[in-house]
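Run log // design_07
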């Protein structure tokens, strides 16, 4: 059984993905690793004025820090804005979170995630991998082979959706002078996926937060990623764009060059949209 309509499985030998959905509407990409796992979907909605992303992230981040449910952990300050109503059979909740100039570590969650975000004024790089745990335990390099990157432009409004168990990491696209993004995240089922007993107790008691529902990348896979700096430019990458200037500083769009947080030029990019 192949991938669903509009959702592509990237060829392993390809250095990049140039496939786009709805380029004349909301430029999007849909990445699928296998038929039995949910895809990652990223949809670019619109672009704000130059510099507006940084300003929004600063003001929203300040408001978030004053929320009674604010938590600052794992380089991802966050707050639970709306809790479940289990007495009414409502397992949903809403969170805010911010990813700053240094990005945050690779991690995953048991449940599905869908969020709307605004990127900082350097754009954001979204890194994803859907893996088989047994395969990665036997060969941590399997994690690197599964990695895919989606880049969204500066000061952009975008939407992301992915299934439980998806490894992900978000960083600014161009160094550490700008934050990566601020997001509002909808958890469709806080009890979804394989939760530990401690996590289930926290969720049922409406005491859960994003750090408590987070699993960090195992050390062998993290070491493989840290040692792969020279190979990061070969990770299949899709750059979503609305086809107009996206940076406050004039830049030649024909170069199509970005830098990762580690300073390596992302010079084999597929521009879509």
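design_07 sequence
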């Amino acid at each position: 059984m192949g991938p669903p309509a509009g959702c592509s499985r990237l060829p392993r030998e390809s250095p990049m993905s140039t496939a786009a959905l709805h380029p004349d509407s909301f430029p999007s990409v849909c990445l699928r690793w296998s038929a039995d796992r949910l895809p990652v979907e990223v949809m670019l909605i619109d672009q704000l004025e130059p510099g507006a992303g940084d300003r929004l992230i600063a003001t929203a981040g300040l408001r978030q820090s004053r929320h009674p449910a604010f938590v600052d952990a794992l380089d991802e300050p966050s707050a639970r804005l709306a809790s479940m109503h289990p007495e009414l059979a409502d397992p949903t909740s809403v969170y805010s979170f911010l990813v700053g100039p240094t990005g945050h570590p690779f991690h995953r969650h048991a449940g599905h995630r869908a969020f709307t975000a605004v990127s900082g004024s350097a754009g954001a790089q979204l890194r994803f991998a859907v893996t088989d745990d047994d395969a990665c335990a036997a060969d941590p390099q399997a994690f690197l082979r599964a990695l895919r990157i989606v880049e969204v432009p500066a000061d952009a409004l975008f939407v992301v959706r992915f299934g439980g168990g998806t490894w992900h990491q978000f960083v600014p696209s161009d160094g550490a002078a700008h934050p990566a993004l601020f997001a509002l995240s909808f958890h469709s089922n806080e009890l979804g996926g394989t939760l530990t007993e401690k996590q289930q107790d926290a969720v049922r008691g409406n005491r859960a937060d994003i750090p408590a529902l987070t699993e960090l990348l195992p050390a062998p896979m993290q070491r493989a990623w840290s040692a792969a700096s020279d190979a990061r430019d070969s990770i299949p990458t899709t750059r979503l764009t609305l086809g107009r200037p996206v940076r406050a500083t004039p830049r030649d769009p024909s170069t199509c060059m970005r830098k990762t947080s580690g300073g390596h030029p992302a010079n084999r990019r597929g521009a879509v949209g």
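The longest helix spans residues 52-65.
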